[in-house]
Amino acid sequence: MPRGPHYSLLYCVSSGLSSQAPEKQRGNGTGLVTEFVLVGFSNLPDLRTTLFVVFLLTYLVTLSGNVTIIAIIHADRTLHTPMYRFLAVLSLSETCYTLVTIPNMLAHLLMDSQAISISGCRAQMFFFLGLGCSHCFLLTLMGYDRYVAICHPLRYSVIMRPTVCLCLGALVFCSGFSVALMETCMIFSSPFCRGDRVEHFFCDIAPVLKLSCADSARKALGIFFLSVLVVLVSFLLILLSYAFIVAAILRIRSAAGRRKAFSTCAAHLTVVVVHFGCASIIYLRPDSGANPAQDRLVAVFYTVVTPLLNPVVYSLRNQEVRVALKRTLARSCGVLR
Q1: pLDDT value at position 15?
Q2: Could you point out which of 19, 110, 136, 202 has its C-alpha 20 to 30 Å from the C-alpha of 302?
């Protein structure tokens, strides 16, 4: 029976809602798989406790840093501007992004079982990709905000008024999760029968796609095209924004004015380079997934280390955030006294 173009979406939704008892995978490896095994760091048994402690401490610092930024921006009225509201949304997005992968990874480091159900794998991939794509679009939006602030300062409050910022923020997340839905449904539109071992510590695109029964070449090409669209188009738009920003900064006569204008962009540029660099290494390679060990190493960086950079960079390199933090702490100490 021919399958219509909406078949993938229907299969993805219906299989996620089904509650049938899982089948057993056949011993010869040709049966349908209903449960995956995340390989993770099982090849490093002697380092599992050390990795758990390191990842847990990094995760706690990341959470506390992002929560602190959100709290400061909410509490200090001087930071109630589009730039810092977008930063608060970025911190919230980073917090959710780490919640998708790190707690599950920490649990697997402690337990003998590395199993994850197909529905759990599907949900993890959907939210991971949705937040990752939204992160790309949000950084693009933050670049546009800097462009308007520096190149059109007199019209900034009109162009970036609250209703416009709210609509742009909603568009960012709707676009990100729409791309994630398409990619996730493409991957899970057919059953899995090429083994149950996912060569990763979470359900990422390449290691899961390799286990699909169907020919994955077309799916891989479609996903690669979507990845190029999200990563490259976002990055090129950011470069375009900064081309206009640099031109505007060079027209400022005073060195102090140029320094102040550039300082508002330095933290954003740092996060952009790290985020898009990692995304390009993983998702814009034709042989993505060919080297699982290397992919896991890079994945540790962009799932554990990169989210830590956001609060560190924005708190250390942004004077207004540092001043607001000191003001909030002083106010809190005064209340306690």
Answers
A1: 43
A2: 110
Helix, strand or coil, per DSSP, at residue 87: helix
Please state, in angstroms and rounded to a whole number, the distance separating the CA atoms of residues 330 and 311. Answer: 20
Q: Taking the model in full, what pTM does it have?
A: 0.83
Give the CA distances from residue 18 to residues 11, 25, 273, 308, in Å, rounded to whole numbers and listed in that order: 10, 18, 41, 37
Q: Tokens 């990752």: give the residue.
A: 132
pLDDT at 22: 38
At residue 287, what are phi and psi to the nearest 5 degrees? Answer: -100, 35
Distance from C-alpha of 127 to C-alpha of 184, rounded to nearest angstrom: 10
Stretch (H or E) spanning 116? strand 115-117
Residue with tokens 């993890």: 124
Confidence of residue 161 (pLDDT cuts 50, 70, 90): very high
- Determine the Cα–Cα distance for residues 99 and 102; give it in Å rounded to an integer: 6
Choose between 49 and 291: higher pLDDT: 49
Task: Give the mean model confidence (pLDDT) for residues 252-257.
Answer: 80
Backbone angle region of 29, left / alpha / beta, with phi > 0 → left and psi within -120 to 50 → alpha? left
Name the nearest CA neighbour of 68 among 308, 336, 335, 317: 308
